[in-house]
Amino acid sequence: MHSVNAATGHPPDDKEAEHIPLITGSVAEFYIEPMLPHVGDIDVMLYRNTHLAIPRGHPPPTQLPAEFHNYVKVYEITDSHVRGYVYLLLRYLLSKRTDNDKYEYFECDVKPCDVVTISRKEDESNMTLHGPYLLHISQREGEGSTNIHGPALLRDNSHLSQLSVDFVRCVRCLSWPSQASDWPTRHRNYGWPDSTTLDRVVSNGCDVVGMTHRRCRQHEMCCRAQWRLSFSRAEIVLINSWMPVQQITYHLLRVYVKTERLTESADNSGAATLSNYHIKTLMLWACELKPGSWWAENLNLVRICVELLQTLSVWLTDTRCPHYFVRDCNLLDNSFNVERVASKLMPVDEEHLSTWFIRHYVGQCAQLCPFYVFLFGDVSTSVKLHKAVSEIVRCRLNTSLHDMWQAVDYAEARITAAVSGRSLTVRSCVYWTNELTKIDKRFSIYFSSIVLLHVACKTGGLSRNGFNDKWTDILTTVLGHNSSQCCSVLPRCTTELNTSELVELLQQSAVEHLTTYRQLVAPDLGSVATIVTTDIEALYAYKRGDYQRCLQLSTQNVHTLLYALCRHSVSTTPEFIQLMDDDIVSLTALTLTVSPECRDKRSCSSISQLTLSLYLMTQCQLKLHHSVTSLAQTLAYVKVAQRRHPRWRTLDHLTLKLTERKVFGAPLN
C-alpha cells in the first residue's frame, strides 16, 4: 500500500517542475514479511526534476532519464571538511533540444560563495540558493499536514494509511560519488556483494540530502550550506540481495534495540544516540565480512544476533562505527551518548537473548492471534512453546492472504483515483509505469487499462479537440512503442475515424487489458475471496448490444459469486462509468448527491461484481424476451444478494432494488 502511495503521489508534470518521490527505508528494504510491524513510518526521498548533482570534475550529461525536465540546473559536488558531507555549487544549465532529445549545456560563472543553502525556518520547507536561484518543495492543499522533522518533512497522511510519511529533500546524482570511489573495487573475501549487484548499485548513483553534520550545526554557514551524501538507493539494492536469514537477523536486531530502549537518550542532555542506521551499517559490514556458511550452517538466529550485538558493543566502546560506503568516515563521535548502550550490550549472551525472544518477540506475535491468552499462557516446556509457535504461524498464513487482497484492492483504487484526478502527461505516465512495474508488473497493466479508459473518456467529451497529439504520445508511452497493443491501436487512432469509433476502439483495448489483469490477479487471491475475470467484458458486451454474449458471461459470474465470499467491486469513476448504462449512471449520481460522504468511501459508491452481474443478467433477459420462469429465478438470486450485501453498500442496494423493479415491471410472455 505504501509503495503504491509513493508511486501515485506526486508524478512529474510537463507544465511545472515537480518533486519525484522515491520510497526508501524499511518499506523498500525488506522483502520478508515479519508478523510484528517492521515499518515505523514511510520514508520518501523527493528530488526535483529540474535539479541534478554531478561529482566534481565530471562533464555535464547530454542525456537524462525521461522524468527530468527540459531545463535542468546542474550542481557540482565538492567536499566539505567533514567526511560524507559536501557542498553543492551551481555549474551548468541544461536545455533539451527538440531535434534529438539531447541536452546542451551552458556553463555558469561560479563563485566560491555560490553554494546551495538550506532554509532552517520551521514554517518553511524551502531550499534556497545564494543569488537568484531557488529550490522549492511545493505543499499541495488537502494532502496532509506538514511539519519539519530533522532533515525531513513529516506529513500526516492518516487518510491514506496508518503511518506518517517523512519527505526527505534531496538532489539526485546519477553518478557514483568520488567520495566512495574505492567501495566498488575494494577486496572482498566472500563474494558479497557479487559483481552484478555491485554494477547495479553503482549505476543507480546516489542522492545529496539537505542535512548538516551534528558538530557543524552551531556554525552559521555550515549549518545552511552543508549536505550529506545519501546511499539509500544502494542500501535498498544490497539489503534486497540478502539471504532471508540476514533480513530476519536485521529485523530482530532492530526490534531488540527498540524494545530495550537503546535508541533513546537516558537523559535530556541532547546527546546523540544509537539509531537504526547504525544497525544497518553493522549488518552491511557483517554480510560482507562473514562467509555464507556463518549465516546458513547450523542456523541459530540467537547465536548470530548475540555475536553481532557484541561487535556493536565493541564499536560503541571504541567510539567507532565505520561508514559502509565512504572510507575514513566514522558514524560515531564524542557527542554520542554510547556508554549506557555499550554497558547494556556487553552482558548479552544466548540465554539472555533466548529468554527475551520468547517473552517479547514471540509473546507480541501471539497477541496478534485470536485467544492469545490461552495460546501463550503456558510455554514452560519446549513442547508447549512449539505448539504456541505453530499456532502463531498458522494464524499468520491465514491473515497474510487477506492482507494481500487489501493491498491489491487499495492499489486499484489508488491508481484509478490518480489517473482520474490528475492531468496526464507523457512524463507522469513514464514515471507511474516505471514505479508500478517495480512494485508489481500486474499493476502496470491495470494502469494501462485505466489510461485507455481515461483517454476514451476525454476524447468522447472533447467536441473541439477530440483525439490529438497529446493522447497519441501518452498511449505510445503507456503501451510501448513496439508492443502489439500499440501497433494495433495507434494506427487506427491516427486515421480519420469519427469520435464514436475511436472511443469504442479505446474502450475495447482497455477491456482486454482489464481482463488480462483480472486473470493474472485472481489465482493469488482465490483462497481469500472469489473474483470473476469477465465482469468488464460482460459490461462492454452489453454496451455494444451483444446481449447474448453478455447474458452468457453474466450468468456464469452470478453462479460463481452468489454463495461465495466476493469482495471485488467495479469503480464508478468517470473512466468506468462510461461503460455503464444510463440507469447505473443515474443511481451513482443519486448516491453521491444524497450521501456526500460516499465520495470519500469507495465501498459506498462502487458496485460489486455480483450486483453488476445480476443487473446485466436481468437486462439481457429482458432484452431477449426470456420467460417469466427465467426472470423468477433471477429475482430469487437478487433476494439472496440483497441479504448478503451490508447496508452501507449504498449503490449495491439501489442497483439491486432497481433490478427487482425491472423484473416486476416486465411484460408477461
Sheet with the most strands? 11 strands, mixed
Bulk shape: flat
Terminal Cα separation, in Å? 52 Å
Residues in helices, as a percent range: 40-55%
Rg, alpha carbons: 29 Å
Poorly predicted ranges (pLDDT <50, ≥5 residues)? 12-16, 119-161, 265-270
Strand content: 5-15%
Q: Kindly state the number of beta strands.
A: 16
Structural class: alpha+beta
Summed over residues and divided by their number, the pLDDT gives a mean of: 82
Q: In DSSP terms, counting alpha (H) and pi (I) runs of 4 or more, how many helices?
A: 26
Protein traits:
single chain, 669 residues, alpha+beta, three-stranded antiparallel β-sheet, 13% strand
Describe, in plain words, how this protein is organized in 3D.
The protein is α+β, with helices and mostly antiparallel strands and 669 residues long. Among the domains are: 2-241, no CATH class; 529-669, no CATH class. A hairpin with a 6-residue loop joins strand 5 and strand 6 (103-107). The longest helix is centred in the middle third of the chain and has 40 residues, at 382-421.
